Amino acid sequence: MLTLGIESSCDDTSVALVESSDRGHVVISEKTASQIDIHKKYGGVVPEIAGRMHAEKIVPLVEEVLNSPSPLESPLGQGGKNRPDVIAVTAGPGLITGLVVGVEAARTLSYAWNIPLVAVNHIEGHVHSVEITNSKFQISNNPQNSNHQKYPTSNIQYPALALIVSGGHTELIYIKKQGSYKVIGKTKDDAAGECFDKVAKLLDLPYPGGPQISQLALKGNPQAINFPRPMINEKIDFSSENEPAFGWSFSGLKTSALYWLRDHKLAAMHLNHIRLPAGFFAQMPEPPTLEDFCASFEQAIIDVLVAKTLKAAEEYKPKTVILGGGVSANVKLRSTLETALNANLKISNFLFPMNTYCMDNAAMIATAGYYKAVKKEFADWRTIKADPNWEIE
Ligand code: KG4
Ligand code: ZN
C-alpha cells in the first residue's frame, strides 16, 4: 500500500510517500521544510508564523514528493507507482495554526483525487517511527546486516510500552495491541524537550537546545552539579482509572538550573567562557565548565525518564519497549535506557527510530496511517477536523 503522509503539527512541514506491507515500511520519497531558522530568532515556535509557513510550503511539497523523478526501487515490489492508495494526515495534537493547514490540504486532495483519508494522532506517528526504514537493505531481513538489530522493521511485539519524549510531549504509553493505547505516564508541566530548550536558552545556546546540550554534555562530567531528580521516588498509584499513574515534572529542574546560574555568578561567567583573570581560581576549587553543567543537567533528565520507564516496564511486562520523539535522538538516553531494561528486566527488544525519524516527519504519519487504512478506519473529508488536544487512546 502506498500512503501519502502529511505532517504540520509544529514547525516542520513534511510530506512523504511510504510503501507499507506486513513486511515493513519503506520511505519512497520524503520532503520536509523546517522552520527552525525562522523561529530561532524568537527562541521558540511562534504559532502565527508557523501557520503561514505551513500554508506556503504544503502544496509544493506534495507536488515534489509525488513527482520525485526516480522513486527508490522498493523491496516490497510496488516502487515507481506514484498515485497513493491512501492519504494520512496529522489531525492532532499540536498547534492549531499548523494542524488546520495539513488537514485542509489532505481533505482537499482526498476529495479531488477520490483517495481515502485517515486521521493520525501525532503521538501514534512517533510510536510507529521505529518501524520506518529508507533502505531496501534493512528490510531484506539480512541477519548479517549490523544495523538490522538497531533498526528492525515490523518488529514491534505487543504488548509494548512506548516512551515518547519531544518538545511538546513526555508520555508513557501502554500498547496492548496495535492501535490500542493507554497513557500511563505524563508530565505535569514542561515536556522534557521543552526543558532542554529552555535551559539552553539560559545558557545562550541556539534553539532547539536539546542537540546543543547533548553535544556539549559528551565532554562534561555528569556528577559535577547535583541537580534535583523531581518525582523520581514518587509513589505509584495504580488504582486511579483516570489519572496516569506515572508523572514527571520538569519545570522545577529548569528553575533549579536558573537558580544555580544566579547563585554561582562567577562560576556562570566561567561556564560561559567569559575570561577571568589568570589564577582567579587559585584559592578555590575550579568551578564546573559549560560542558559539566550540560552533562549534569542531561543526566538529571535521563535519570527521571529511565527510572519511570523501568517501573512501568516492571508493572506492565511489555515484550517491546519503544523510545520515540525528538529527544530519542539523545544517544545517552538511548544507551542508558537500553542497558537498564536489559540488566534489570531482561528486556532486549528495545526500539528507537533512525535519526532522521526522531524529529517530526511525515513518514511516521504515513506508517501509522497504514495500520488505520488496513483496518478501514477512514475519515470523511467532509467532517475531518484538526484537534489540538487529541489524546491518544
Ligand atoms: O519530536 P520533535 O521534533 O517535535 C515535537 O513534537 O516537539 O522534538 C523536538 C524536541 C526539541 O525540544 C529538541 O530540543 C529535542 O527534541 N531534541 C533533543 C535532542 N535532539 C532533539 N533533546 C535532547 N537531546 C537531543 N539529542
Ligand atoms: Zn513530535
Please explain how this structure is put together.
The chain is globular and about 70 Å long. It is of the alpha/beta class. Helix 7 (192-202) packs across helix 8, helix 8 (209-217) crosses helix 11 and helix 11 (290-316) packs parallel to helix 12 (331-345). It contains 13 helices and 12 strands. Strand 4, helix 3 and strand 5 (117-121) form a beta-alpha-beta unit. The strands form 2 sheets. A 6-stranded mixed β-sheet has the order 5-4-1-2-3-6, with helices on both faces. The protein has a 6-stranded mixed β-sheet with strand order 10-9-8-7-11-12, with helices on both faces. The chain folds into 2 domains: 2-151 and 356-374, 2-Layer Sandwich (Nucleotidyltransferase, domain 5), CATH 3.30.420.40; 160-352, ATPase, nucleotide binding domain (Nucleotidyltransferase, domain 5). Bound molecules: 5'-O-[(R)-(carboxyoxy)(hydroxy)phosphoryl]adenosine (KG4) and zinc ion. 5'-O-[(R)-(carboxyoxy)(hydroxy)phosphoryl]adenosine (KG4) binds at residues 10, 166-168, 193-194, 196-197, 208-211, 214, 325-327, 329-330, 359-360.
Summarize the structure.
By secondary structure, the protein is α/β, with parallel strands linked by helices. It has helices at residues 36-40, 47-66, 96-113, 122-128, 136-139, 147-150, 192-202, 209-217, 251-263, 265-271, 290-316, 331-345, 362-374; strands at residues 2-7, 12-21, 24-34, 86-92, 117-121, 132-133, 160-165, 170-177, 180-187, 246-248, 320-324, 350-351. It has two domains: 2-151 and 356-374, ATPase, nucleotide binding domain (Nucleotidyltransferase, domain 5), CATH 3.30.420.40; 160-352, ATPase, nucleotide binding domain (Nucleotidyltransferase, domain 5).
